[in-house]
């Protein structure tokens, strides 16, 4: 890929950027890797049946795969790095990732619960929970690694698998302090890899701030327009980005303007993290922030900057929270760093956290609010089973929201102090469903109404709804491979939405695959496919379907 | 003197001093028994009901329902805790109706069924449901049962920096009939956690100080009433709404609520005000004593709990021209956490369910379950204060000393009221000393009729009977009551002042400050402008804010001895706070003094007049800030900064290190 093409791809990713740490890495081509053992073949797609372990391959050039004994390594050696890639395993796959010439991270298939779990560092830290997806699903690894230097060990700063942090800050004192290629080693079974991307993680700081001027105006009800006219704005000069400006206003709008000195032309991401309302612009164009109250959810934007002096403007309105504004910059070849002064952004008070694990024989039930995409759902029930398979269900729309394996729930934001967010967070490896109403009657848009739910002897609920006055029911039963969904309906006219997702691939014999999970529909059940926008929906007659499996 | 005589005198003095030193306390009359909770059970009581089998069912803020067997612990045994349900969303109401437990969660009314009778709830029936905004402050309560058998519920407002009604019916009280048909009843509610139906079928609810609410209070709600906070009026246009008022009808002038209610039909003034910090800071549940004497001498009266002050107060009501009014009195302090729920046991003891997570309470435990038991001994108390056409009638539980009864300086009466406006809380306004013109003691010496010089309608009369003693020369256990006067009671004839007038006296004690809002609180210890002599130079600028849970956002601030200090205090909380700089080791002393300021407290910003208070701000509204300038003490040491708003000082303080 040429530089220009790469940069325009990065700019396209603008809306997807959510935090400084997510600065897009440089995609690697297959040519950046070489086979040093065994045979690695290119392919377009690879399918492995989760239960039967059958492999089928489509031709193409976007993935590499191998079977048996094989090793793949980067052509170039690396020092400090950020790496991400996706991998897919067969049932019995045993594999590992090697960094820094000595840190070995387990990439083997531990989906049936066998140890060591995926992500375990050999001879060092165990993975705290099993986040391995089912055979045949793409898994994602994200790694930040720093080489050892004089007096400091090599550090595996962060290892994330399938979105869950597995390790943070694991030291290794015994590695040689030199660059080395990244290596993927396969011992047994089949492993496929794709979407590899890497960044050098240097310590240089090509962007600096200077010449900061501020203007402070009083606000009322957090709006400048409602402020009493009598108080004139105060202005002045600052050494650093901060809110600590002497003033007597009860509420205020602080505008900081200054220079951005750019040593190297390139694409950079600027992230603002603040408590209040903030907008950040460079050279007159808004890069990050929005016109609403925000407590510490970072907002980022990408921008292409030429070498030299640019101008920034940071507008900050204090709300009812204490003041706090921060600015971070990140790029493709260096570690993100703050551009604000030390006192500008208060330490985020982290608590010890309140966590729930199902320990009894029966499932644990928690009802709460929950974030689902852009929405805060207000009638969600989460069920945690002692077998470490859990799900969240939206009682409002009668639809599953999330399923996950591993640790159950983080309820700190529900039961710490007032619990203002009242939000539950899954702790394990999570798949997301569409959240759409699960039942419908053709040509009838009437919504579901919750009647009741009842528990079986294991504490698993069956949800009873009324659709057009008649009963429909759903029961999500956690299992080792994922979950079985049992449905029922008083009327033969009721249809059930099996799945709605961006890509749904039919692998034959009732097996389907989305990007995150498999769906196993009993053979012989008639499944109707419908395209709604960019989603593919699969429907079946509820009383014919009766049950199906989700495997992840 | 002979040795025998000396000994006799010494013994006499000794026995006399013993008699005087054994002052009786609340604990001698009403004992608090703690029901011990097993470790690991977070019994943050949200709702509570006593079951026919002698057990107690409690639902918690963490969504669980617990059955407590043997809660009475008769015979000295232990209670047994069994979790029977979970998965409810912060349920704050529980009742037992027709053999089933009914719980009110944030967004629905749920009937809990145990279909296989194994003691565990296995079916959760959604009986009624309403929309939610996702705002934590949308708490929901009920059911209580009305006199015509309907189920009664209330819904809290949202909090978005001020109260709001972001989804339908927040701020309303409504009923559900047997078919689940919903009928809105009244609105103007802000934080209606405690409400009840009395023996006459009348509905009352307790409100918390907040925006539009000058102080805690209990209001009688009739169909179509508007109780004060206008946020709920958003939904008054609904065809089923019996409320005729609209948002634009509500005045925001600061005139007392009673006056607004006279001018605007539909506004309902409270039956009894609970003066803030004197009678609690966050009124919660209410129960009526219908035991016919099994819970002491207050049969027919009411008990009102307080979350912040971990205490229960007493309330007596009378109805004049169809309008309720009455008084509140101190009753029992010292509960282990914040009181939320109160329920009568079959033996007329009172179970008290408690939680304080998120709002610090005087009782320092995170949660608790206790039982209040009458000892059988009748305390010497003001049994009730009722009104006469010319004043007040105080009935005591015992005969009182005649001489003291007829001495006007045995009493002190202050009248005052609050502002009615959108601001959070209110200072005490229009306070005036009330003179006693006549006194008559009843023949049985248990009742005193006090004729007074003014009977301002809508005002609160704080009546203290400090000088009154009984035949054993004991003082009253509690000597104060606060009477809210809504109507003149012409059925009680005035005193004949030819016989019962008291001598005119010049008042010696200084009047409490009248109508002095605290932003005008002037004191040399409160300098809001940089002193000219500083020439614009400040040595140390310190920013102090607040974080939820009654805390400052810092535990330590520092300055050099004698330096010029500027403190900007930002109140980010949803409550009132102040900031005082006090001498080393005097937080307790100053905090207690602030609590003891009584009616003078609000107007003096809860800043006691003491040498140990060096500098201070006024009382700050939520989301406001104040700047003070001062010179740091010359002597080095660990001074303190503290908020002396009642109930706060024990947790809201930090070190001001002078180096």
From TrEMBL, chain A:
Q: Where is the 3-keto-alpha-glucoside-1,2-lyase/3-keto-2-hydroxy-glucal hydratase domain?
A: 29-197
Record keyword Signal present: yes
InterPro entries named in the record = AL/BT2_dom
The secretion signal range is 1-20
GO molecular function annotations of the record: hydrolase activity
Q: Which domain of life is it from?
A: Bacteria
- Which key words are in the record? Signal
For this entry, the protein name equals 3-keto-alpha-glucoside-1,2-lyase/3-keto-2-hydroxy-glucal hydratase domain-containing protein
Automatic annotation (TrEMBL), chain B:
The UniProt entry, under Pfam families, shows: Copper-bind
Instruction: Name the domain of life.
Output: Bacteria
Tell me the keywords, alphabetical order: Copper, Electron transport, Metal-binding, Signal, Transport
**Domain Blue (type 1) copper, chain residue ranges per copy:** 549-658
MF annotations from Gene Ontology: copper ion binding; electron transfer activity
Question: According to the UniProt entry, where is the signal peptide?
Answer: 1-19
Q: Which residues cross the membrane?
A: none
Q: Supply the PANTHER family for this chain.
A: LARGE, MULTIFUNCTIONAL SECRETED PROTEIN (PTHR33546:SF1), LARGE, MULTIFUNCTIONAL SECRETED PROTEIN-RELATED (PTHR33546)
What's this protein's name? Large, multifunctional secreted protein
- Which species is this record about? Jiulongibacter sediminis
